[in-house]
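[Discussion] Sanity-checking designs against the backbone

I'm trying to build intuition for which residues belong where. Below is a structure token string of 377 positions. I'd appreciate it if someone posts a full sequence so I can compare it with mine line by line.
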């Protein structure tokens, strides 16, 4: 028997009680045992099952009691599944991410020695840089369910209800041994310029602070914000671990292209070049461009059209939503791109030829014609 019967009994019991949290936890324990016993294949299969979202319990007649807004009766929280996309981080972010996981996993030991700090992680960065994704990875790594609350949805027109909402969210999470992501943490700060009074705002902030303070030492809370400077310093202090997810640097962009465009195949040269010309794009932008190019290739039954990707990347600096086009680029368009790649990024004729999918001869032709056009005009 490769695994501890205790886990199988727990798994069965949890499944019959329709308790996904416990099912996932027991199955994750079995995954670890399988991996330890060297059965990677079975471990991998089970791991991917654990990450699947369960059948909505409502369909089985079971009503999961998520906390709801007092007035609208809408749920204040949403359970989200564990990610199926890896998260690419720069070295510094990766280090803090792993330190945080390590401290969570050793919290009992650290508590016993009086060394534990709050398990609060603050993620800041522009839209589409992987804040929500990273939070989901924390939950997956810890094999805990992942709940997301958008702070602005908790804020009600009635102050009393807001406080009640905040408290019921914070009461719920430890009961599930979950990871809680508070998204749009800056929503409270934004109330400042609304019709709300300052005193009211202060009381909401205080309720959040009190709720954070009342959490037990095992509770993992992650906050995400696009505007870290708007956060109240008292809230800021309650998140000892901080990761700044800026726009991806050139190494991270390379990983993103490799994953989203080349499905992790090793296309080092082209990935490098795409990384070099895509400064300013977020992970979400690169994902959108990569997946669109792959979709076009699949549906038209042809190889990836890298030239259309390059064109979308170059257009993205002016038009945030530029995506690869389905039809092939014409010669004029390619000429333009060749010129731009040379002028702004100093790429060689060979590099440009590779990106545009044409011969080096054609590139020299394009560059010459463009130069002549310039001289003439
Ligand atoms: N660093 C990254 N590594 C891998 N994928 C990424 C990364 N950044 C963004 N993505 C891709 O973009 C998608 C959107 O990212 P995500 O929702 O996590 O961004 P966010 O920072 O939470 O944005 P917002 O501020 O708009 O909520 C991810 O699901 C992922 O597919
Ligand atoms: Mg997000």
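Best answer:
Here's mine. Compare freely.
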């Amino acid at each position: 028997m490769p695994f501890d019967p205790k886990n199988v009994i727990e798994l069965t019991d949890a499944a019959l009680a329709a308790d996904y949290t416990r099912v996932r936890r027991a199955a994750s324990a079995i995954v670890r045992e399988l991996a330890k016993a060297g059965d990677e294949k079975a471990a991998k299969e089970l791991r991917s099952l654990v990450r699947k979202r369960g059948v909505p319990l409502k369909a089985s007649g079971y009503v999961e009691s998520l906390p709801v807004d007092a007035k609208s009766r809408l749920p204040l929280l949403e359970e989200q599944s564990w990610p199926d996309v890896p998260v690419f981080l720069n070295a510094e972010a990766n280090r803090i991410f792993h330190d945080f996981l390590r401290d969570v996993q050793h919290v009992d030991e650290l508590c016993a020695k009086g060394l534990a700090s709050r398990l609060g992680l603050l993620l800041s960065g522009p839209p589409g840089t992987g804040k929500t994704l990273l939070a989901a990875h924390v939950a997956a790594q810890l094999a805990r369910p992942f709940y997301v609350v958008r702070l602005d949805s908790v804020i009600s027109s009635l102050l009393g209800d807001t406080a009640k909402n905040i408290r019921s969210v914070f009461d719920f999470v430890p009961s599930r041994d979950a990871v809680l992501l508070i998204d749009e943490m800056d929503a409270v700060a934004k109330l400042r310029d609304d019709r709300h009074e300052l005193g009211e705002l202060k009381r909401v902030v205080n309720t959040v602070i009190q709720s954070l303070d009342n959490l037990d030492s095992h509770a993992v809370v992650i906050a995400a914000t696009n505007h870290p400077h708007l956060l109240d310093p008292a809230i800021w202090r309650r998140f000892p671990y901080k990761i700044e997810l800026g726009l991806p640097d050139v190494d991270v962009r390379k990983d993103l292209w490799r994953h989203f465009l080349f499905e992790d195949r090793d296309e080092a040269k082209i990935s490098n070049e795409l990384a070099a010309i895509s400064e300013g794009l977020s992970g979400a932008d690169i994902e959108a461009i990569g997946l669109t190019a792959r979709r076009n290739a699949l549906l038209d039954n042809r190889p990836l059209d890298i030239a259309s990707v390059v064109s979308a990347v170059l257009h993205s600096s002016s038009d945030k939503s530029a995506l690869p086009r389905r039809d092939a680029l014409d010669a004029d368009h390619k000429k333009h791109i060749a010129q731009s790649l040379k002028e702004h990024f100093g790429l060689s004729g060979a590099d440009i030829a590779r990106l545009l999918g044409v011969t080096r001869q054609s590139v020299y032709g394009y560059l010459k014609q463009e130069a002549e056009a310039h001289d003439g005009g």
